[in-house]
C-alpha cells in the first residue's frame, strides 16, 4: 500500500499569508495526486487533481505542484474562507490512500 | 446538478449489520466508478471501497474485507454498502462519492454523509 505523509499536521496563519502544505508518497505515484478541502458540516471539495490541475470553480490562489513522491499545495494569499483541513490523496493504485490532513487555523 | 444522498446510517450494536444506500441524480450514474469514503470522529479520510461502472470490479480497504460489500443498481441510480460484523472502529461518517477507478481517480462529487455509530 502507498502511504501518504502530510506536513505539517496543523499550522496557524493570518489572512493574506502564503501557505504551503507538503505531501510525500512512500513510492512514486507520477502525478496521480489530488488535494481536498474539508470544512465542518460540509462535504469535502476537490481543489487540485493530477498534482497541478485546478478543479473548475476553485479560486486561482490555490495551486499544486510536484511529481513522483513529493507534492505541494500552496495558497498564495490566505482568505477567511480557507481556514479548513486539507488532505492529499493518491490516485495511482488501490487501495486509494489519503494523507493525515493539515488543519489551517487562524493566527 | 449532481446530487448524492446517503441514507441508512444510525446506531448499531457491535457485531450488528447496517446497509447504507446512496441515491444519485443529475448525472449518468452508470458511466461512473463509485466509491465509499469514511471519516471517523476526529480522524482523517479513509477510502473504504469502490465499484466499477458495471459492477464487475470491486475493491476494499483491508480493514473491511470480508465484512463489507459494495454494490450498485444502475437501473435505480443507487449505490449500496452492506456492512456486517460492525465494530467500534467502523464508527464514522460514510460518504458516497463519484469516481474511483485507477489511475487518476478524482473524487469530485460527495454526498453529505451518513453517520454510523457502533456502540452498545
Structure characterization notes:
The complex is a heterodimer of chains A (107) and B (120). In chain A, 0% of the residues lie in helices and 50% in strands. Chain A contains no helices and eleven strands. Chain A is globular and about 35 Å long. In chain A, strands 2, 4, 5, 6, 9, 10 and 11 form a seven-stranded mixed beta sheet that branches. Chain A has a four-stranded antiparallel beta sheet with strand order 1-3-8-7, with no helix packed on it. The mean pLDDT of chain A is 96. The termini of chain A are far apart. By secondary structure, chain A is mostly beta strands. Chain B is an all-beta fold and 120 residues long. Chain B is built from no helices and ten strands. In chain B, the strands form two sheets. Chain B has a six-stranded mixed beta sheet with strand order 2-10-9-4-5-6, with no helix packed on it. A four-stranded antiparallel beta sheet of chain B has the order 1-3-8-7, with no helix packed on it. In chain B, strand 4 and strand 5 form a beta hairpin. The radius of gyration of chain B is 13 Å and the shape is globular. Classes of the chains: A mainly beta (107), B mainly beta (120). The A-B interface holds A 30, 32, 34, 36, 38, 43-46, 49-50, 55, 87, 89, 91-101 and B 35, 37, 44-47, 50, 59, 61-62, 95, 100, 102-108, 110-113.
What key phrases describe this protein's structure?
heterodimer; A: 107 residues; mainly beta; 7-stranded mixed beta sheet; 4-stranded antiparallel beta sheet; B: 120 residues; 6-stranded mixed beta sheet; 10 strands; globular
